[in-house]
Specification:
It is a multi-pass membrane protein. Component of the ubiquinol-cytochrome c reductase complex (complex III or cytochrome b-c1 complex), which is a respiratory chain that generates an electrochemical potential coupled to ATP synthesis. The protein is mainly alpha-helical and 467 residues long. The chain folds into two domains: 259 residues, Up-down Bundle (Cytochrome Bc1 Complex, Chain C); 150 residues, Cytochrome Bc1 Complex, Chain C, CATH 1.20.810.10. It is 63% helix and 1% strand. It contains 18 helices and two strands. A two-stranded antiparallel sheet has the order 1-2. The longest helix has 33 residues.
């Protein structure tokens, strides 16, 4: 049942004609009312709130352009690269469709990263929106899988060797790793079998999963209502009709609002598609215009830019890094023992846990811990609702230095991405290691630092300036 504090309390009126005929057989009008005209969103949503709707638009662009690409693409190791060239050179408007799809892949990650950052600074993962955040993280994971599977399909040099490197990472898992890598590839090397199964996942399985998760994300959002820059729950202040005083109907107010953002986005998107589709080799790597050659390794293998922050964390995890983590475990265990010196049961648990983790770090190869670090850098987002102990949601009412922390985190993420693209070097390793420690420190220390400082009082109602 829809939340009456966010949706109109009255049933949709009966309509005649075609709409009435449909309503008797399908709840079109009630769905329209519940999720658009009588769904009340906070009236002070700002620039940061464009990126949620833009994510849906880019998903639609990718699905539609992908359908047209599949009509001419050949998922065959001997024909894949040639079929992409055929699309680019001989299919009417094929070059445009391919560039829309490749640009859309990067645009998808750009808007999703910005959407996630907005959730981070405004506390959109806090109660009662934990499930919305979890669905969003699942969407992010699915999007990464979709991009990875699609990355192999052009069958260029970087596609082939990038897939080879990433799949080989699974072989670092103790005991089951080598067999798992073979199972993923379907062969001992990346081959035609790998291409076919990646094609199936990219075209059918993951898109269906994405659509389901996006639908669940929106349903969960409309159940509890949108967050806002103040972090104030608008349903706590309603008028006599049960309508939030600080809310406005999503349609037409925010549909028009989002249309403006969409217009700006499409202008930028089209400018990239028509004038810089390769974007200096970041959106389409130069090596991917060379057919895949299993006998010739590119001098520098790096994934596409949206994976590079996590790839940088992987590369920064060497045996020296593991030694640092071992030191961190020792210090953390000693601190936990000191904090629980009057609680023998908990102290023993921390001692045993710390000892086991220290033993695991010392006995398992650093390559495995690199994979764990890379995966953990993504998975840790799922735990944000329980890591953040701040008494307020929004960055607006947190101490000023909290803004510096979030800004540093964003800069740190960009720096990780930059050095993930660069060839390995001592400087790149040192910077990536520092950024990796800062990245995980942001999350692991959040239960501590998020409570510190002088917090501003949160208003009872939204702060809003007409514009």
């Amino acid at each position: 049942m829809a939340d009456q504090s966010l949706h109109g309390a009255h049933a949709a009126p009966e309509h005649g004609g075609l709409r009435g005929w449909v309503d008797k057989r399908f709840p079109f009008s009630s769905l329209w009312s519940a999720h658009l005209t009588e769904y009340y969103a906070p009236k002070n949503l700002n620039f940061w709130y464009y990126f949620g709707s833009l994510s849906i638009v880019v998903l639609a662009i990718q699905i539609i352009s992908g359908i047209f690409l599949v009509m001419n693409y050949k998922p065959d190791a001997a024909l894949a690269f040639g079929s992409v060239e055929y699309i680019m050179r001989d299919v009417n408007w094929g070059w445009l469709i391919r560039y829309i799809h490749s640009t859309g892949a990067s645009a998808f990650f750009i808007v999703v990263y910005l959407h996630m950052f907005r959730g981070l600074i405004y506390g959109s993962y806090r109660t009662p929106r934990e499930l919305i955040w979890i669905f969003g993280c699942l969407i992010f994971l699915s999007l990464m899988a979709e991009a990875f599977f699609g990355y192999l399909l052009p069958w260029g040099q970087m596609s082939f060797w990038g897939a080879q490197v990433i799949v080989n990472l699974f072989s670092a898992i103790p005991y089951i790793g080598p067999d798992l890598a073979v199972w993923i590839r379907g062969d001992y090397v990346v081959s035609d079998v790998t291409l076919n199964r990646f094609f199936a996942f990219h075209v059918i399985a993951i898109p269906l999963l994405l659509i389901g998760l996006v639908g669940s994300h929106i349903i969960a959002l409309h159940q509890v209502g949108s967050n806002n820059p103040d972090g104030v729950e608008i349903k706590d202040n309603k008028d006599g009709r049960g309508i939030p005083r600080d809310g406005v109907a999503f349609h037409p107010y925010y549909t028009v609002h989002d249309l403006f953002g969409l217009s700006v986005f499409l202008m930028i998107f089209c400018a990239v598609v028509f004038f810089a589709p390769q974007f200096g080799g970041y959106f389409l790597e130069h090596n991917n215009f060379i057919p895949a050659n299993p006998l010739k390794t590119p001098p520098h293998i790096a994934p596409v830019w949206y994976f590079t922050p996590f790839y940088s964390i992987l590369r920064a995890t060497t045996s020296n890094t593991v030694h640092i983590w071992m030191g961190v475990v020792v210090v953390a265990t000693l601190f936990a023992l000191w904090r629980n010196r009057g609680k023998p049961g908990r102290a023993v648990s921390f001692a045993v846990g710390g000892g086991l983790l220290f033993w695991a770090l010392a006995s398992v190869d650093a390559k495995f811990w690199g994979v764990v670090s890379m995966g953990g850098a993504v998975i840790i987002f799922f735990f944000l609702p329980w890591l953040d102990k701040s008494p307020v949601k929004s960055i607006r009412y947190r101490p000023t230095w909290h803004r510096a922390v979030y800004t540093l985190f964003a800069i740190n993420f960009v720096v990780l991405g930059y050095f993930g693209i660069q060839p390995p070097s001592p400087v790149a390793y040192a910077v990536a290691l520092t950024c990796t420690l800062l990245y995980f420190g942001f999350f692991f220390l959040m239960p501590w630092w998020s409570r510190l400082g002088e917090f501003k009082p949160v208003p009872q109602r939204l702060t809003y300036k007409a514009h």
